[in-house]
Amino acid sequence: MEGTTITYTVSADESGLTMKSFLRQRKGISRKLLVRMKQEQSIFLNGTFTYLDHPITAGDVITMKMPEEESENIIPQNMELDIQFEDEDIMVLNKPANQCVHPTLLHPDGTLANGVVHYWMEQGFNRKFRAVNRLDKNTTGLLIVAKNQYAHQQLSITQRQNQLTRIYEALVHGNLNKEEGTIQAPIARRSESLVEREVREDGQDAVTHFNVLRELKGASYVQLKLETGRTHQIRVHMSYIGHPLLGDDLYGGSKDWMDRQALHARYLSFPHPRTKKIMSFKSELPADMTKTLNKLSF
Question: Which of 60, 89, 136, 248 is catalytic?
């Protein structure tokens, strides 16, 4: 099965650049990927393999061919996948609760990765599983999977440039004293735990914006926008300001209303890695959060 093919046509203002400058500076291709393409002799100028120091002119066609890569020891498992969108470069999935994204020592199978790898193998593809954004086991909602190295690398640039918009919705304990605000507090791993995080001065910078959608009976329905993507960021930040998520007993929440943290990745927006067209996706609240929201509404 053939791998991914990326094609660029050189414009007039790009004439005179070397292939390396064009691909690195104008197209954002990583040095690592270019080294691989050179070693495999899979970069072509007008259909002929050409070294990266070759100058280019307007109208030249540069083609990069990347073979499929075998998945890294992930056991394929047949499972139902809620695929919101798919093309040759990306998949956008809606992840359910109680499912890890990647296999771990405690959860070696039954993960989203196991299901996606099986789905690809059924179509005749061997691919590495590359999740672009991460969701905790009991967080539901939208997740992007890159289907090739090129797409993953381009989406990584998108993240670093803050062009990946991630909006979550949550149910938290208590009523906040303002309609909106920003939590800027560094997060680090708690020294005595492999899992738990905490706000600490020597942690990594973390910024969460919140907006109260509705006040409830002893709780609030809030929208949260991530500016950074630290592990457990929303859970830690909301607990830090005294409003832990319902069901999140790791960070001070009660399971009286929810048996998992009430957190849903509701909305994603990002430029497509190949076309640069803005892609936007929205996922409805899962049934358990909707049920709790209705019960706690005035």
Answer: 136
